[in-house]
Amino acid sequence: MSPQLTIVGGASLDVLHLRDGSRHPSAGGAGLYTALAAQRAGATVTMIAPRPAPMPRELEAAAIRLDWRGPEVPPADLPGFEIEYPPAGGTRYRRALPGAEARLSPDDVAWVEEGFVYLIPMLDAGRQRELLRHFKARGCRVACGTYAGAEQRHVREVARQADAFFCNEREATALFGTLEKAETGPGRILFVTRGSRGARVVQGGHATDIAGVPVEERDPTGAGDTFCGTTLARWLAGEHPVAAAEHGVAAAAEMVTAIGPAALLAPPPLPEYPRDDRIRLDADRIRALGEILRRMPELAPWDFTGPELPAPGAAGALACLFAATLQQFGFWELDGERFGAPMVAMRSGRELKGSDYLWSAYSGWLRDDPEALRPERQAELTAEELRARFRADDGSDPLPAAGLHLAQARQYGRDMVALGWTPEAIVARANAAPHPLAALLEQLDHVGGYKEDPLRKKSALLGLILRQRPEAFLRTVPDDGAPPVVDYHVQRSCLRLGLVRVGDEELRGRLASRRRVDAATERGVRAACCAAVRELCLASGREMGAVDWFLFQNRTRCPEMSEPDCERCPADPACLHARELFQPVFRTSFY
Questions:
Q1: How far apart are CA 224 and CA 253, in angstroms?
Q2: Does residue 54 have a cis peptide bond before it, meaning omega lies within 30 degrees of 0?
Q3: In which element (H, E) is residue 253 found?
Q4: How far apart are CA 420 and CA 416, in angstroms?
Q5: Nearest to 354 by CA among 556, 548, 576, 532
Q6: Nearest C-alpha neighbor of 101 from the set 51, 27, 152
Q7: Which of 168, 192, 233, 539 makes an SS bond possible with 200, Cβ 3.0 to 4.6 Å?
Q8: Is 40:264 a contact under the CB 8 Å cutoff?
Q9: Angle at alpha carbon of residue 530, lines to 415 and 266, rounded to 5°
């Protein structure tokens, strides 16, 4: 279903003086650029702004694409800007006429009662603040933009109250002192554009940088608005804010290669954010494995029960599942610059590996002190308490990244407390939504331990657990699919099976020798594996829960530290047998 977006602010009639010396009359306006970008990215857009009659030729192509509502005005009452881009760089406004748009008031938008609203940067930031209060009072979610000359006391209030706030790096510096100090309140997102260097996404105190896409710039007009509209559309469609912003960066890069809004009037698809071209999917092997999975009648999603997991129906199980799933990462040792060994330790007389050990620890915690797994207690967790809960039979703490686990537990608790949320309330809101799993993921994008990963591995895992456990905490509905749950075991399987192929010899050698890689390489491999798993679901006709269970179980047939058992593997007929390949060696809290 197409996301719905209302944009307050519209079109202008501009004159552009480009760096090559050419002059171009053009359609313009922050509202128009944002609306066209959002519409091209899949949103259904209503734009509230003065509508000229007769419609100027420059605006005709845009007008037929949008639900444009607002008071009728003569074309002369539209805003107008004459913008110069000197050859040496920068921007100079030769003329700026605010027009009738500056007179928009709550009376002009009184008919909007719900949904998501974007308020464009306004010359009068006090008017933007008034409109923000109007929409928030009606229960709308609201995003806002700003501009460098706006009155800062109003801008600060708008930035604090908006659900999402868009600005450029210079404007962020004016608001926060430095870009590094930029942060948001609980449940709010900050998007900062950085020109050719891309963008930054801030979720609370966590920031993610997105590299720019190199292009030959011709007309930079509307690049920030294009980023805004595209990002909003993809975010409202259910993507993680960072993944949505990657679409925004790619769209803005395409935008500046044309004059005016020409790129935004092109038909879909959107330009893709560049991925690592050293890595590709093998469609033939994906199809071959898909056929094997299709013919496995016994293949079914796991119910996430067993001796190490909370017993079905256990009091406090929901809080335990939330607190434990975010800790599903980092179960291996680094030996200098190479993979050392997986985490294995004795607990209660049983030798347990990584995830099983963690589940055993949290299930014991649930039995001994269930209240300690509530968010408010996790927020104040100490290193000593965590060590005690993870202590092995020999008294050691086997966690290879204990500091990361402690930080994740605390951030989870602090975000939940700041938001006033509980696991029960999150699940209740999700179950009340048309698509419960999608609603769960959207909420977890604001919660520490889950929000940081654009590929949502732990969030998706929690969704599958809540849906597949005997308690059926989360409703199952059609067309509510989970993202791939790609950890390092799944990446290893994708590489060895040949679902994902590495063409670059240097990277292939680094993976085979189990040497540490950088963050960009890790993201490239994991993103390709995520795409391969999605395609495998389509090729097999199986739901994500079943495909995930098959690939996760493959770790026992194609393990880390011993030879693969190909004879026992159902995937063997479709396998590339790239036994030497290994998952990217990179320490992260994502998986």
A1: 10
A2: yes
A3: helix 241-255
A4: 6
A5: 556
A6: 51
A7: 192
A8: yes
A9: 95
Contact 261, 218 (CB under 8 A): no
Distance CA 95, CA 105 (A): 24
Q: Which tokens hold the place of 537?
A: 């679901």
Distance CA 489, CA 552 (A): 7
Token readout for 586 is 């990179």
Phi, psi of 20 (to 5 degrees): -85, 5
Question: Can you read off the two tokens belonging to residue 69?
Answer: 């509502």
Question: Nearest to residue 52, comparing CAs of 25, 80, 33?
Answer: 80
335-368 residue pLDDT tens: 999 999 999 999 999 999 999 999 999 999 999 9
Let me know: does 565 contact 379? Beta carbons within 8 Å: no
CB atoms near residue 376 (< 10 Å): 13
CB neighbours (10 Å) of residue 110? 10
The dihedral built from the CA positions of residue 293, 299, 300 and 303, taken in this order, carries a sign that is negative
* Among candidate residues 549, 81, 509, the one with its CA nearest the CA of residue 306: 549
pLDDT for residue 320: 98
Per-domain residue ranges of the chain: 4-265, 317-574
Give CA–CA dist 258/249, Å, rounded.
Answer: 15
Cα–Cα distance, 69 to 545 (Å, whole number): 44
In this prediction, residues 208-224 reach a mean pLDDT of 97
| Contact between residue 146 and residue 125 where contact means Cβ atoms under 8 Å apart | yes
Would you place residue 118 in the very low, low, confident or very high pLDDT band (cuts 50, 70, 90)?
very high
Among the listed residues 138, 139, 183, 149, the one whose alpha carbon sits nearest the alpha carbon of residue 165:
183
- The set of residues, in sequence order, having a beta carbon less than 8 Å from that of 424 and lying 6+ positions away, is 318
Helices marked H in 513-578: 519-540, 544-557
Q: Answer whether residue 77 shows pLDDT above 90.
A: yes
Strand partners, 189: 164, 203
The Cα 172–Cα 52 span in angstroms is 34
Both tokens assigned to 235:
């975010």
Count the alpha carbons within 13 Å of 531 in the hemisphere toward its beta carbon: 15
Res. 122: pLDDT tops 90 = no
Helix, strand, or coil (residue 242): helix
CATH level 2 (architecture), domain 4-265: 3-Layer(aba) Sandwich (3.40)
CB of 50 closer than 8 Å to CB of 10: yes
pLDDT of residue 408: 98
SS3 32: helix
Residue 389's closest CA among 413, 357, 417? 357
Burial 508-531 (b: 16+ CB within 10 A, else e): bebbeebebbeeebbbbbbbbbbb
Per the structure block, which two tokens stand in for 93?
A: 């406004």
